[in-house]
Amino acid sequence: xxxIAFLHTSPRHVPTFDSLLKAADPDVQVDHLVAEPxxxxxxxxxxxxxxxxxxxxxxxxxxAARGASVVACTCSTIGGIAEHAPAPPGLTFTRIDRAMADRxxxxxxxxxxxxxxxxxxxxxxRLIDESAAAxxxxxxxxxxxxxDAWPHFERDDHAAYIDALAxxxxxxxxxxxxxVLAQASxxxxxDALRDLGVxxxxxxxxxxxxxxxAL
Length: 215
Hints:
Elements: E1 3-8, H1 13-24, E2 29-34, H2 37-45, H3 50-63, E3 70-73, H4 79-83, E4 92-95, H5 98-107, E5 110-115, H6 118-134, E6 140-145, H7 150-154, H8 158-171, E7 178-181, H9 187-192, E8 200-202, H10 203-214
Parallel strand pairs: 1-2, 1-3, 3-4, 5-6, 5-7, 7-8
Helix pairs in contact: 1-10, 5-6
C-alpha cells in the first residue's frame, strides 16, 4: 500500500492537502497529524530550542505511525527541524516547501520571500540558500513580512488574508524575478497574483508532486 502523511500546525491545511492528493493520485492513502502548539512554541522560543526540536521529531514519527513511507511537514517555520528528524530505513522525512525552493532557485536569481509570520522568514531563506548551494547557483534574497495578514488567518477570514498578501506583494519594489509564498496557507495568493508579470510560487502543489515522486 502506498501511504504518505503530513504534519501540520493548523487544521486548515488538512482539506487542502486531501484535495491535492485526491486530484494527483487517488490511490495513495493519506494520514494527517495536527500539532498546533509546535508553531506557537517556535514563535515563542525559537527554532533552536532543544525541547521544540525533540517534540517536532516525535511528531514526525507519530505522523508516520500508520505505515507512511513519506512524511512532510507543512509548516515552514519548523520544516527544517522536521526534515532532519532521524528516520528509519525506508522512511523519508521532508518539508513541503523544499520543491518550491528548488524551483525558485531555477527561476531566480532575485527571489522575494513573502511571509505573514516573521518567524518563517529565516527558515525559508536558509532553505533557499541550501537549494542554491546544491544547484551551484547564486541568488539574492529579499524578504517581505506582511504583519497585518496573519490576524485574518487566525480569524479564519481567508479572503481578507489573501487580499492582504496580494496587495503587499503588488506594492513591493520590483527587485525580484520570482516570488516565494513561504507559508502553505498562502497558496491562493499565487492565483490572485497571476498577472504580476513574474512567477509566484506556492508550496502545496509542488510539495505534493515531490512526495509522490519520492514514493
